[in-house]
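Assemble and predict.
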Amino acid sequence: MIKIQKEDFNVEKEISSIKKLYSSIGAVTSFTGYVRDNNNNTNVQSINLEVYEEMAYQQLEKIIKKANIKWSLIDTLIIHRYGNLKVSDKIVLVASFSSHRKDSFESCNFIMDYLKKDAPFWKNEFYDKKNEWLINTI
Amino acid sequence: MIKIQKEDFNVEKEISSIKKLYSSIGAVTSFTGYVRDNNNNTNVQSINLEVYEEMAYQQLEKIIKKANIKWSLIDTLIIHRYGNLKVSDKIVLVASFSSHRKDSFESCNFIMDYLKKDAPFWKNEFYDKKNEWLINTI
Amino acid sequence: MKIKYFAWIRELTKNDEEYIDSNEIQNLNNLKVFLLTKYPNLQKHFDQEILRFAVNQEYVVENVNLKKDDEIALFPPVSGG
Amino acid sequence: MKIKYFAWIRELTKNDEEYIDSNEIQNLNNLKVFLLTKYPNLQKHFDQEILRFAVNQEYVVENVNLKKDDEIALFPPVSGG
């Protein structure tokens, strides 16, 4: 499932709403990304996250398809927020559901790699006296 | 933080209670293990998890120390349940808190590896007509 | 065709999307020439080859043909996650 | 000294812990001999070298000296996580 939303999310609720559908799930690896108070040694006040929404859905679906070819997965979840986010707010959740740990771990990391590389989101980071558009480095 | 408990846990609550202490956290990787309905092609009814509690705390603390030497971590959390657990119940939560993704991902996987190898827990799996003590394979 | 701009490209074009109806724009290279004429500030970013194009929500690097109802997006390197 | 048994070792000794007070048990090898005498069923598992010993909650593989107030645990391969 892919969700692109302004709202915050509850990791327990999001994961258990999928987990409860499959009693064969033994392993869930999840990654949560947050707005940090500091980037490149500069104090961050807030960020504005811009998204090309239709394309983001399409690219994230492709990434999930790729992950399903490489690993034995029962389900996957990606939630990415956009809009104004302040320090400590959640930005992204990726969760991989599988029978065994290796599949969920590796696929979760793989999805995050591709999300950072190909998903059309842009962070505009606001510091004390200026702002800056970020570029992901892999 | 290490918790060895009978009770279930809420992933969101457990993670956010640590996350809120540090605004420098940008990345949280968590692994949740569940009781699967099937193991070695046999239907699982429930499991009983036995623990050598004092030793488990000691061994898990050592693993966390090792992880802190290898990676730049802000905090770590291990929760492991014991007692009677039924299919789909949570067994274990490992969460690694760091500024950057790589540290949290690799350390979470590392902690799970050592937990499975060295932490003194034993699963007694109950099937339709018999039960069996499991052995972890790495 | 619809052209969409994102992040600092949007700030530079002062426009988040626009519709272009020109028989001279048959492919992506034609569109690039059109955009550079309209937005000369884009030139240095084109030269640095850091910009990314998407046609109908798919990344495009080659010079593809464009149709009237295509949606083309121009944006800087991404920074999600 | 206190001896603790876990999982199917506990089922085999029919005892989860016991106190042993013997001047003849000075080290882990002495204790192993004692345990094999008391629980002959342990022999085949000792032979397979699958059992693990912990002294004061630390894994031990060598023959260490034991003190009166040590806690020694004997258990099968673990299966947590």
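Chain D has a mean pLDDT of 95.
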